[in-house]
Amino acid sequence: MKDDFDIERARKDTRGCDRVVHFNNAGSSLMPAPVADALKEFLHQEEMTGGYETVEQNQQQLNNFYRATAALLNCETAEVAFVENATRAWDMAFYSFRFNPGDRVLTTVEEYGSNVIAYNQQVKRCGIELTFIDSDAHGQVDINALKDQIDDRVKLISMTHIPTGGGLINPAAAVGQVANEAGIPFLLDSCQGVGQVALDVSKLGCDMLCGTGRKYLRGPRGTGLLYVKKSMIEKLEPPFLDQHAATLVSPDEYVIRNDAGRFENWEQYFAGKAALGVAMDYAMSFGMPAIQKRVCTLARGLREKLTAIDGVTVTDRGLALGGIVTFMAEQQSASQIKQLLSGHGINVSVSDGSGNLVAFNQRGLTSVVRASLHYYNTESEVDFFTETLRKIL
Ligand SMILES: Cc1ncc(COP(=O)(O)O)c(C=O)c1O
What we know:
Blueprint: H1 7-12, E1 21-22, H2 33-49, H3 51-57, H4 59-73, E2 80-83, H5 86-94, E3 104-108, H6 113-126, E4 129-133, H7 143-149, E5 154-160, H8 172-182, E6 186-189, H9 201-204, E7 208-212, E8 224-228, H10 230-233, E9 246-250, E10 253-256, H11 270-286, H12 288-307, E11 312-314, E12 324-329, H13 334-342, E13 346-347, E14 349-352, H14 357-363, E15 367-372, H15 379-392
Parallel strand pairs: 1-13, 3-4, 3-5, 5-6, 6-7
Antiparallel strand pairs: 2-8, 7-8, 9-10, 11-12, 12-15, 14-15
Helix pairs in contact: 2-3, 2-11, 4-11, 12-15
The chain binds pyridoxal-5'-phosphate.
């Protein structure tokens, strides 16, 4: 691959590269050294000086989380909340809506499993109507089918940007445009998008966006983020409130914050928050367009090589494809392949179960191997991967 990406720096900073070929970045990436060191340093300070005191002494580092997220997403710091993972971030947005019987929610067949569970809970509890928009011939959300479903009962359009079990990058900005033109709030689950692709909430047209720390952002586990557009914040009353989200002004009165802090907890994983800010700064030091280009190019190379192996079927669909590469083989099951690759020092995961259930059911897929690449992976790792897979099969 001929580009000016500083792969030497990326590898040097990724200490785990010496031990494993890590193609499980959509699960949890290898933290780069500056991120892991910041996390350890924060915890060490907590150990030596006390948790509350460490927070007081590191205000700037903690505030950096908001500054870095705002820079990454092109939004304001007051529109950002620190949450423990993408699911809770998404929940805080979704469960803030007060649905009435007959209200409609539009999503897509590629929706993430936990989100589908939440919709169905609201179907049972509030009588909302849930519609899955089908994919078009390329495998991405069908924008015309989405437009056809718009009516004045639609209260929310909610979509997964990059599904957990395939290479697809859904055309989020086109969906945002439909939502904005119809005046319908748009919730985007970009859990696999943050850190993988360049995101600009004003171009995406989303009112709310969730992300996680441990995947493509290469931050610590147990960290996540929520963006809520300024004009939406005061319209959304979070399902849980505490003394950080609101102020108790008398025994029976409280005032909810008017920034995205209303979606946060008082008690937080402060070490993780500080380190996630470092992770975002680290990503931006390479530049998101450069990261996106490298991830997509590496993954395209892997797909081409996999297609040439007898018995292997690449299962990714979509006009735009990212760093997640999924496949099946006639010779071995997905879980056998994962286990055998692990014996050769290669990490992958298996996509099955509820993560991508609606699309998988529709396509007759039950279980696929998921090899998810990041910018610090190399073409020689891709070659080693495909050679090893050939031998295994
Ligand atoms: C598309 C998508 N959304 C949400 C999640 C959940 O993220 P978290 O585990 O951080 O809650 C995942 C995790 O794989 C995902 O792929």
